[in-house]
Amino acid sequence: MLYTLRTKKMNQNLSPEEILRNREQEGGIEFDPIPSPETNERVVASDAPDHINSFKGEVNPVNPLQNDNPLEKRLREIEELKNPVGSLGKSISHQEITKTVDDGWKNLPLEILPSRGMFYPEGTRIAIRPAEVREIRHFSSVEEEDRISVNESLNYVLSRCMRMIFPHDGVVTYQDIIQEDRFYIIMAIRDLTFLRGENAIILKPDKKCKGKPECPFNDGMELRTGVLDTFEIDDKVIRYFDPSSGGFTFELKNNPGKKMKMYVPTIGITNAISDFLNEAKRRKVQIEKDFIKIAPFLFSDWRNLGYNEIYSKLRESEYWTKEEFSIYYGMSEKIKVGTRLKAKAICPSCAEEVTAPILFKNGIKSLFVISDIFGELL
What we know:
This protein is α+β, with helices and mostly antiparallel strands. The chain has helices spanning 16-26, 50-53, 70-82, 94-103, 133-139, 147-161, 182-193, 235-238, 267-282, 289-294, 307-317, 322-334, and strands at 106-107, 125-128, 162-166, 170-172, 202-203, 221-222, 228-230, 241-242, 247-252, 255-262, 339-346, 353-357. The strands form four sheets. Strands 1-2-3-4 form a four-stranded antiparallel sheet. The protein has a three-stranded antiparallel sheet with strand order 7-11-12, with no helix packed on it. A hairpin with a 4-residue loop joins strand 8 and strand 9 (247-252). Helix 1 runs parallel beside helix 3 (70-82) and helix 6 (147-161) crosses helix 7 (182-193). The longest helix has 16 residues, at 267-282.
């Protein structure tokens, strides 16, 4: 498989539906639904609420960044350059837009993910749909204090509301998603589920705008994909990226023939490591903490990755040189992608950066279970 190193400087202040809306309106990119793996046909969200099925690309006005956003303007300019008015460039028709939305699936551009789509095969496509009652009901049973329960509930939503296609493998499982892309995709699904802001999670900014009472963030910042801030891999590490494998290849100066390979973990690999640790505990096998930290970066595929395969790598690590260990340990910290624990946005009133810690005061259930139930009553 050939992996593509996609651009790092991407728009982070727009939510997926905003970007899709702009591209649909400006033309040049056609967003098709992803087929269901069960039927190989389009999935119709027949049970979705009316406000989902009738959505025609309008954006929730609660988010102040959606009005006169310079980044949104720049995105339109880029699309106009690719398909200027009067050109013969292909544009998506209103009928096609309506059909795509009525089916409930929306293509999610890989470039806006924390990984920038860098570690997926070239030509990979991801589509998401709003969570329906069955997913929300299942998510409501999550045990807030149980990390395994939270992990399984998030993965359930992904398995139901996301489809991913690899160009040579067809539809693949959610376990092929990069682990650190998971939260962003979950948030994108949430954005599509609550288009009217009926389940808004309001974050408290670290500071208020001085002398700017009209600042829309003084009363809080709504948690949406458009305000998520992500890590970027250091350019010094990027230079070791190997497009042919989708991972990183390092060579030591004192042993140039020795190649050390590391990969950004997928959900499947993370799950396999977790299962390994549980089994090791059951067998009363002591596992060093440093290996636990490094292990997720040592495997390229979660398929056929079981206890024996991981234990074999553990035994192999006992023979690493001090230089090899230092590279593996150090790079496991530097190969970091994902969402930061603080949301970030630019205030439209004073143009200053506003940050807010991401906290769920009503618990993780508030991601999909409406907290303000009285707000839904007449």
